[in-house]
Protein: Heat shock protein 70
Amino acid sequence: VLGRFDLTDIPPAPRGVPQIEVTFEIDVNGILKVTAEDKGTRNKNNIVINSNTNRLSPEDIDRMIKDSEKFADEDRKVKDRVDAKNELESYAYSLKTQLSDKEKLGGKLSDTDKQTIEEAVEEQIKWIESNQYADIDTLKEHKKQLEEIVTPIITKLYGQSDSTSGVPPESSYGHDDESL
Structure:
């Protein structure tokens, strides 16, 4: 914000009725003059902003650039960690939802396989809740552990339903969407 001013004594009127004309003028020296005038009352106010007012020094600009570069790396690391947590969480909750749906995995798996996945999912959900700030490698490892339990069961399921090829249809059991 370079500056502020108020235009006062505008009479009450419905929205859109007052007409305010705002003019910006910059002279050759970089001085900015902003004027606001209520066309109905001719009430006017202005502010002058000098070229050196509220400007950053070259040193401040350099420092801010260096800080932004330094923090960009930290921000990327935080984002990557949050993404890994969200992937694990989405995968676990997607599985939980599908296991409870009789039209999806819940109705297609044997009781033993369903229980195996349910226990693994519940274990991961509890782990996530108690390890909100786990590092990215640990989060990825937990997702991998869950996939190592789920993938063979899903592969076996699709192998039974598509015995001609023995290859599971294209699926996304390693991703965070709803289709398995």
Notes: The mean pLDDT is 83. The longest helix spans residues 58-100. The two ends are 52 Å apart (CA to CA). The first strand starts at residue 20 and ends at 26.
